[in-house]
Structure formats: C-alpha cells, structure tokens
Amino acid sequence: MTFITAIPKNFNLIEDELKKLCYRHDIVMIEFNSKKLSIASYKKPNDKLLTALRFISSVPVCYDIWPKEKIEHYFNRCNHEVEIQEEPIRYDPSINNEDKPNSPAVNYVDYLIASAIEKRASDIHIEPFKSATKIRIRVDGKLFYVPSPPVENCAEIFARLKILAKLNIAEKRLPQDGQLEWISYDIHYAIRISTLPTLYGEKIVLRILNTKNHYSLEQLGIKNNLLSILKQKLSLPQGMILITGPTGSGKTVTLYSCLEYLNQSELNISTIEDPVEIPIKGVNQIPVNEKIGLNFSTILRALLRQDPDIIMVGEIRDQKTAEIAIKAAQTGHLVLSTLHTNSTKNTLERLENLNVSPHLINSCVKLIIAQRLVRKLCPSCKRHEEKPITIQNDNIETEITSWQAIGCDHCFGGYLGRTAIYEFLELKEETVATQFYQLPVKTEKIPFVSLFASGLLLVKAGITTLKEVYEVTGQEII
C-alpha cells in the first residue's frame, strides 16, 4: 500500500482555471485571494456560473455590473494575458522535500486528491473523451466538474495513478482494481482505484474513504424507537440482520457502526469484505480475493470453523453464500449482511429467489433495514416555501411546510452534507414469512414506517426538501 502526504492546494493553478472560466463567459476577474473572489460583468451572472466559481475558488464570490463597453475594453487591452490554450500544469506542493519529483503528473494528482478531500468528495471520476479528459468529483451524492488537466499530461497522470495503486500500467484492455493510502493532516484515507477501458481510453474512478470516520449508532440519525429495536436485535445470541439499499446508500457506515457497538473483548467478531474498507481494532477482517478462488462462500464456510460469535458478510451475492449465512444464523452466530434491494419487502422476495425457504426466513432473519441518503439543507440559506404542500402518504392526504434549497457561499446549490432515512421491518416468530410479500403499508403486529414516511419527517423538521425525498425513494410525485 502506498502512503502519500497531502499538500495545500495550488493557488496559481486555481487562479488560472478561474481566469479561463471568466474569459469564456465575458467576465473580468478583478481580485482573487484567500478571502474572496471579485468579478465584473455587464449582466448578472447566472446561478450555475456562480456555483462553479465558488466551487473552484472555495471562497465567497462577489460581483459588480460594468458597462459592456468597459468589459470589451478590458479584454482588448489584456487579451494577451489570457491563454485559451491550456499550458502544462506546474504544481508546486510548497513542501520542503527535495526527493519529491516535480513532474506535471505528480503535481496534478497531488492537487486533485487534496482538493477533492477538502471539498468532502466521496469519488473522483477521470473520464477520457475524444478531445479532452474531463474530471468530476462527487459531493453529497452529486457530480461536479473540476479543472481538467491538459491533454498532453493525461497519459502520465493515468500512469501515475496506476503506479500508486500497484496496477499494471501496460494493461489498458482489461479492468483493474487497486488501493492506496493517503495521509492528509494526520488523517488517513483509503483510496480505491478502479480502471475501465472505454472508447477513448481508460476511465479511472477513485473512491475516497476516511478510515477514521467511524460512527456510533446514536450518530446515524435513527429514531429512538427504531434504535431500541436495532440494539435489541444486536444483543441476540443468534440470528440475521440485513441492511439493504442501492450502492452509495450508506449501508457500509451502518454495518461498521453496528460492529463498533458490538466490539467487545469477550466476543470473536469476523468480517468478510470486498474489499476491507475501514480497519477496526479487535475485529478479524478478511478480504475477498476472487482471483485465487477466495470468495464470500469459501471464506464463510472456513470461518464457521474459527469459533466466531458474530459474522459480518459484506454482501450476500449468490445462493451458496445465502445458504451458508442462514446456516450460521441458525447455529449460534449473529450474522450481519447486506443485499442490493429497494425496500424491506423486496428483500424477502430476493431471499426467496435465492431459494431460502419462508420457514428459514421466519426463524433466522430478525430485522431488515432499508436505507437511503438524502442531502441536508444548508442552514445558512434554506428558506420556507410560501404555501404548505398537500401530499399523499399511506393513502392519506397530509399538509406539510416544505423548504427550498437556495445556494450560498457555504454550500453547493443549497445542500451541505447528507443524512440517512430508514425503513425497519421486524420479523417475529409468530409471523409466517410469506405474509410479508403482501404486507400493507401498516399492520398491527409490526409497526412499519416506509422510507418515504421517514423522509417526510426530515422535511417537516427542515432538514431536507420534499424534492430530495421523492428523488431518493423513487416515489411518484403526486
């Protein structure tokens, strides 16, 4: 694993990118420093442009309105200073390290990762196209463009990333996966790198994980009554707890929080992961290696001979893994795992498709949690809707006060950070599992709050918007 120390962002590189962006939109950049960016235009800049300027500069943006003639005169006089053709990057890390190579590729990779971490990005997408390579970073679940490298530096940048992740730099026809560790201000980040051949070359995606970013169950945002149910199920000596949702819905954080809650010296806890994302002290974490036949089912079968108390299976992907996991949950082990399904009820159908009988589901599965991540409104600029909105929830019309995402210097488009919404389905022994396939939204035996209803609670509290809840739950807007 490669260790790299992050460095401060490059001021000159950012200033050059701002100049080019302003030039393309007939805007004069008056001043740029660590406190603000001042611009001038003959008309009010649109919101998307202001958001882009704030995103690149990381400082508040203020603007003046100048006469169009003054703008034209400025560009006629200073046009030679604005280079339309991008020059090779010369990034100075501002670090006293004589042994550090001073190549454009090394400098750009350092700048890109450090900048993405600073902006709280979870992923970096490096995408080759016919005439340019585009760079986007994912912040709070949405992708944003960031400054791209010159075409002449791209091959070296790609090679640099592959070397850091210990990938084969000569192999460009097949997908590859690797990992490196990045250290930024004493914080360790695990960065997973994935390559994929496309029409115009290899696309590279970097997934950024803060290895110290552990959460307690109380910090997950689960309501008190549901949190009590989760803790009660985690205290069981055997059984299965399933966490479901699409990729990027926060399942891993929930799993790790459960493991942190359970992590005690008198318990033998083992995990099977592909890959191991966050090291946990005192937990036996086993990485999957498909190349040598070390898959989930093989590891799980061997793990049952290791006297485990608690087993975490990163994902139940096939029938064989499901069978062994259910067997483990029957024979004195608490099993935690995930499935890629849309809701708690879909999870029961998925288990049936994996040939797990309703009887085994009923006796082994103690709790199913479906979850999604919603963006949180920026507290500095959120605003009430003028009129209450009437919506349908559980076939009942409900009137709620919604909120608007406005956008300001503190956020990107009105949102800042994310939180989770949850749907719990508690299976009890007296319940026949097949009944759940036709579960109504509410039952007397099992209190049931859907993902959509959970999201509405956050809307009422002013934490997120109704639009965001509709988007992440896939609910039709009525």
From TrEMBL:
Pfam families found in the cross-reference section: T2SSE
Organism superkingdom: Bacteria
Organism: Arsenophonus nasoniae
PANTHER family given in the database record: PROTEIN TRANSPORT PROTEIN HOFB HOMOLOG, TYPE II SECRETION SYSTEM PROTEIN GSPE-RELATED
Name of the protein in its database record: ATPase, T2SS/T4P/T4SS family
Statement: the UniProt record of this protein carries the keyword Nucleotide-binding: yes
Entries under CDD domains matching the protein: PulE-GspE-like (cd01129)
A single Gene Ontology CC term: plasma membrane
InterPro entries for this protein: P-loop_NTPase, T2SS/T4SS_dom
Keyword Zinc: no
GO molecular-function term, one example from the UniProt record: ATP binding
Family: Belongs to the GSP E family.
Ranges for domain Bacterial type II secretion system protein E: 304-318
Alphabetical keyword list: ATP-binding, Nucleotide-binding
